[in-house]
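Incident review: delayed structure delivery

Summary: a single-chain prediction request sat in the queue longer than the usual turnaround. Root cause was a stuck worker, restarted by the on-call engineer. No data loss occurred. The affected request and its eventual output are reproduced below so the record is complete for anyone auditing the incident later.

Affected input:
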Amino acid sequence: MTESLDSAGMACWRAYIESSQRLFTQLEDDLRADSELSFADYHVLVLLSEAPGQRLRMGELAGRLVFSPSRLTYQITTMQKRGLVARQSCAEDGRGSEAVLTAAGLLALREAAPHHLRSVRAHLMDDLDDAEVACLTRVFERLGRRLRRDRDASSTPSE
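Output delivered after worker restart:
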């Protein structure tokens, strides 16, 4: 059974959503101004940079970004035109396609990352009050503990 929010809790929730929307809009604007990348561009580049061989199957990339296949296809096509990514058939079996990070894409990511991190820090400090910062800190700490537990549980002991 879920608990319903009282009026104070609902007001707090609404304020949090509104501040999150303002924050997202400001971060998107800052990212575009600094690097001409959208948030979606930035996240595609981050995921590809962290992937083995800097390439991911389109289906896996869509899943990690929670994008529909049609939205991802549009995103990749747009980024291809700008030279940030390439699309190739899968190296393993030749079926399906993969998004591949290009040298220009890696350079764009490296240039954008410091601006983006600085923008995140500045806007978080400006936009959230102490209670929201404390709440987010608790959420991230819980998430970190859960991820570590999951990682430890899934790792097999070495022989």
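Verification: The chain has a mean pLDDT of 82.
Action items: add queue-age alerting; document worker restart procedure.
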